[in-house]
Amino acid sequence: MKDSFRLGEDGIYRCDAFQEFVWQSHGFGTRLANPRVAVTLRQIHSSDVCNARGLGNRECQGDGLATSEVSRAIGVRTADCVPILLLDTRRRAVAAVHAGWRGTAAGISQRALASMQEWFESEPGDVYAAIGPCIRVCCYEVGIEVANAFAPLFPEWPAVSGKRHIDLPEANRRQLQAAGVAASHISDSGLCTGCLSEQFFSFRREPSNPGRMVSAICRLA
Q1: Would 35 disulfide with which of 27, 76, 109, 132, CB 3.0-4.6 Å?
Q2: Rounded distance, CA 164 to CA 167, Å?
Q3: What is the pLDDT at residue 3?
Q4: Domains in the chain and their CATH numbers?
Q5: CB of 86 within 8 A of CB of 68?
Q6: Angle (deg, nearest 10), helices 168-178 and 108-120
Q7: pLDDT, tens digit, for every residue of 136-151?
Q8: pLDDT of 67-92, one tens digit each?
């Protein structure tokens, strides 16, 4: 793991940087267990973000959820895509993001930040981000069309001429930083769903297995 994420006895990963803020609870699920969640989405690999206020479970279509309500656990489901949890330390707003390649290319993490600014007056400098278990560059090879969509995020690449391994969490980290989130406020688990079959579901590894992990966050006070 690149940053400090801990696997609890309950089978759920948590980010140490988030644990400093006692007014929230969060977790990244595994094959064994998932955190409690009240509201999730009908996910469509988009950059659409929904305000969870008043929503029932799976009532909204999109790939990001945000709220400032107390005791309203929001979350996303993944099995290779990047789960990102956002935490506004000043306004106490939170968000959960599902970032597949389409959502990442469309800037879903930046859209989530912009939505928090619009709805809760969040400032990027106050926001912490935790990037959970997802498929990593070691296991994620894509064709030239998808690679070309990511070339602007990776100017150090040579010209794209064929298949390429894509680093989706790094792409989201760069987008979050470009939107104003401090590098020191972004934690990445470094956990690969493709490699760690005993811990995580992976759609690429097991396309016939419908298993998903839940990543969720809740404002407690």
Answers
A1: 27
A2: 10
A3: 73
A4: 5-135+168-219 (3.60.140.10)
A5: no
A6: 40
A7: 999 999 999 999 999 9
A8: 999 999 999 999 999 999 999 999 99
